[in-house]
Amino acid sequence: MAAGPPRLMAAGGGRAAGGGRWAMATAATGDRPRRRDRPGIGGPGRGGGGEWAGRGLGRCLPFINRRPDGLPGSLVAVTRLLPRGVRLGAAHSGIPWRIFRSYSSASTKEKANRNGTCERTELLEVLKARAKQLQGSNVPEVTVNKVELTALDNDKYQEAVAPGPKENQPIPRARGDGLAQSSTWAKKLQKDMYVQQLKMKQELPSAASQLALEDQAKLEVKAEARPKAKTMKSPKIPDKKVATAWSQSSGSPHTKPTVAGVKDTVELKRPQRMPRDKNNQQVLQQTIQSDLECFVFLQKSEEAERYLLLCQNSPVKKKVMDVGAYNIVMRSWARKGCLNRIDRLFSILESSGLQPNLESFAVALECMGRKQSSPKAILRYLQQLNSSGFHVDELFQKCLFEEDEKEMVLWAIRTVQPNYQLPPPPSPEICKSSLLQDFYSRETMVSYPKLDFSVKELQERFQEQLEMELKNTIIIESVEAAKPLTPQAVKARELLSILRSQWHDAILQALQNSKCSMGRPKRLSKYSILYPYLCLLPDEDYVDIMMQILNDLSPQGESLAVLARELGSKVYDRYITQRKLHSGQLEKVQKVYEDYIQLLAKDSQPKQYLPREYWEKLVAEAGFGPSLNLKNCSWPCALLMRLGMHMLELLVKAVKVPRNILNRRLESKPIPVLYHVYSFYSNWQVGLIKPHPIFSQLVSNAAEATLTFNSSAMPMLCPPVPWTSPSFGAFVLNNTKLMRFVDDTTHHQLLLEQCPLVNLHPVLDALNQLGNCAWKINQPVLDIIISIFNDKGDEKLGIPPPLSEAPKPPTAPGHSSTWSKSLKHELFLCKKKTAEMHSLRMDALYKLSIANHVRDKVFWFPHNMDFRGRTYPCPPYFNHLGNDVTRAILLFAEGRPLGPKGLDWLKIHLINLTGLKKKNALQERLDYANEIMEEILDSADRPLTGRKWWMETDEPWQALACCMEIAKASRAPDPAAYISHFPVHQDGSCNGLQHYAALGRDLSGAASVNLVPCGLPQDVYSAVAQQVEEFRKKDAERGVKIAQVLQGFISRKVVKQTVMTVVYGVTRYGGRLQIEKRLKEIDEFPEEYLWEASHYLVKQVFNSIKEMFSATRDIQNWLTESAKLIAQSGRTVEWVTPLGLPIIQPYYRSRSTVLDCGMQRLSLRNSNSNQKPDTVKQKNAFPPNFIHSLDSTHMMLTALHCLRRGLTFVSVHDCYWTHALTVDVMNQVCRQQFVALHSEKILQDLSEFMLEKYCSSSSSSTEPIANWQKRLMEQLSNVPRTGEFNLNQVMDSTYFFS
Known about the structure:
Layout: H1 57-60, E1 79-80, H2 97-100, H3 108-120, H4 125-136, H5 155-161, H6 184-203, H7 205-223, H8 259-267, H9 278-297, H10 301-312, H11 315-320, H12 323-336, H13 339-351, H14 358-371, H15 375-387, H16 392-398, H17 405-416, H18 437-440, H19 455-471, E2 473-477, H20 487-518, H21 539-552, E3 558-559, H22 560-582, H23 585-600, H24 611-622, H25 637-654, E4 656-658, E5 670-672, E6 674-681, E7 684-691, H26 693-702, E8 706-710, E9 721-725, E10 728-730, H27 747-754, H28 757-771, E11 774-777, H29 779-791, H30 821-853, E12 859-860, E13 863-865, E14 871-873, H31 884-888, E15 890-892, E16 896-897, H32 899-914, H33 922-931, H34 933-941, H35 956-971, E17 979-980, E18 983-987, H36 991-999, H37 1003-1008, H38 1020-1037, H39 1041-1045, H40 1052-1062, H41 1068-1080, H42 1090-1108, H43 1110-1128, E19 1134-1136, E20 1142-1144, E21 1151-1156, E22 1161-1166, H44 1175-1204, E23 1210-1212, E24 1215-1219, H45 1223-1239, H46 1242-1255, H47 1267-1277
């Protein structure tokens, strides 16, 4: 990127929001789920990722910031351009900029107008926002070539924007030929802000004093005493020590804010009301618990207790206090053996109206065991335990312990009951699901399949994985490293190395100064409450995190809110890892894993256990030590954002670069590397952090040969830890959730924790089975892809070209104010295309670099699931859910002989990948493959120099990989004995409609989606297109103009997406957009008829589907109406899958909370279970989500029964993979489990569950029985009737999955 005027990129630059966001199927909006779509979005180590992950990605792909259900993700933060205190309507509140920038059906003229408007809104972009920032903060002025600042026109307005002493407010002046003076629009905006500030000043005097007192109360805990520095003991593994120095600091502290400065800060805040709703109460409760755990982790028991009592004396906080808060503090004293403190807290607990729970008594007994108290004291607590309705045995059956706590409790009990014996571990419960009776039957149990590794090899792999996770990040070589090193690159790398060393020291100094400033007694600072969170890790860890963010930043910049959230989340993740180390959990995991290897290693005895069962057995036998499923308190979103914003502010202030580093003719003045600017959308102002062009140019010149990823973004080097509960499984140390869900949505986790664990066994076992599939790299294909990637890429083959191939923008003469609309539009399109290319290039770079890193290794993908039960690999960038390129370079690590029919299946699979014979029978596809064997062998032998037949296929890279496999097998002495590692796919035929047709026993629908045996595959899309054409002909004969215009334009391709997404809840509006997009792709279609034609066609498509799938529409309407009535009653829609997985839809009305975080205000959209349900989303999303829960159930049943049959099995939702040898067996299992699933009374069971949950007297709403309940009962009781289709016909249907 050349140094020059940095143009503000509209959508937040680099990486889109990661950590828990998924690009998946749209439920309510109707976009069909793509198998290539990935969980999460982001750059390396961003906790997100996937198919479209990459730097700059959030800017250019409108569909990526989606939640698990496909609905737009909630906005992390947006700042208002309106005067503070002015609220916007709900229509656009909280929606990210990148969601607004979606593809449109607007005409070319409308787009030009819109883009012109976009350009006009950039009139102040960096400049005005930067002026405000310089006036309102101490952030150093950024000097950028040709980006100058225009002075504000009125001193009064300046004071209003940034109140405070004028001498402290530097006013930037215009230099050279910077931008023209502010427009009328800008002046009016400033005037509005000034008027609003005056109004607020009149309202806030009392609020200011209230806030000051409230802030002082919050800080009292930390201000009263300055504890001594301590160092915690760490387990053997890590070399690092946790920085627990309470007042650790060096260097000069920040200057103290003046009284005027504090007053001004308070003036700008709105008075915060007491939390009256459940949402605020929950956040406050979570914050209190997080603060207490933070104190306890730092061994600050005094501060923890003082903070607890402060909360106890606060009327607001007392309401949300529960016994858990007291237990946290008591556990801290118990570790120190301070029984008198625990006695005191027991008294306070009871006096406040709370009752001690089982954990409270366990803590007290642990303390007495550690202190070796007298039998009399121990007996007193045991008697109180009994009188509270508990039994001693429950302490060991229900409580979770850390380190040696369990031993201490046992010692205390045996002091008064010397013969007491631990209760025996409960006998394993067996899942009672009728679908899995045979699977869990001990009579049919078989030995768990072995891996091709010895015990020693697996132990070495486990240690390698553990070391990677302990380091938190991993640096790998980029596939671009093979490029020749130029003198310019050598010099740039040397400069960057020197600068990074200086930046590291500067950030460390700024962090220490900040902590020193915060740690002072009686210091009133908005950041002081963050002080303990800045002491959780060694200072070096915080610096490493900030340096990683800096190194990963895209030239286009990134949303400030995304970066803040990421910084806070990285600190939290490392903190959780440290907690696991300090609790002794890691040592126990190591010990259990060493024994667990015996189940998998080839040189150990066969064992008839599932991975979960064997792990549970080993843990029970281990007896003492910490509990492995310890629950971690998650930090509230606001806390993560505040912490991240503080770290980001330190980063922006500390990191500087000499202005003349690339041009020695300039003065050597240090200028900031990062600067805070704004992008505008209507009245919304989105904060961005952008790198200085000098930094971007340096990075570009250096063409560095390494990439840094979080360890959780990499495939595992050993078999995953088996899932045994909702809070334990997958990685060795990295924090992983069993169920992914939207931020601050806790109902899913509560449902899972309340669900009897035995009901979750099938789901856990299925995830373990998917995760235990070992993989390796197809090296020949990878090398070809890398060679094209490092040449100039090839968009046709899905290899993104480098930015050097981006379209060159036209020369723009004069000032931007003189540019024509067409020129601005052309520049805009060039900028957009460049950003898209950068995003896709980075995405491919990440995937290929990770694949290259593990090219000689065997690896595993641990799995988890979304709230509907759909499964996903945890590593976000490189996995088998990826695109054609990613899938082509993956092979099963286990090889199996092809057998008598394996080579035929490879050939059929190849023809399926080409997309050439979709309507032909399998035998015809096989015959065609044999006819073109010469092309297949030529592609395999000379992929880049031959006739290149493989390049013309639908999935070229998978086709090439398959050609190579066929060539090797066909040339083997005995093809049947050839050992193949190649995965063969069997794909469902419009799987959503298959489930609907089976639910409704819809005869015509079943025939259309291949549930009925037939000699040729039925194509539902062609059938619908044919039906629509018949409707069109009739209308054309009647003289309907648009029907006549459409003659010859109705095809399978035009209607396919809309037909496909009907099952996923697409509306007529969404369907019209889909059809319009397809018509636009037809050059001959007249543009002036686009809207009318798409409107006409979507109506006919819906009519056709209604006619062909009558039972399907009835069921969909029944589900939709039921969900609507449930949501209108104030409840969320819940159900339980046939495998016992509880599901709740996470759609709630959102509310915004404004955080004043120093650099800017952030508006957080809270959408959690304490809000009212969003009726529209609950209604529209229920049918597709219900169907998704069924297809995930079918997949899990197939996975488990394939395990019993000895198959290797993985899936990409409704596409099942196995070896060529076992395709026939998998097909049989797949059909058996589909018939078994739909033989259950699925709709009847759903009706009964919902009637019990929503209409029974015990769980009725607090409102009196009303019409809504009567209507709901009638609706739920009226289950749609089923047709005459015989489900057993699926067993003989060749093209059901093919």
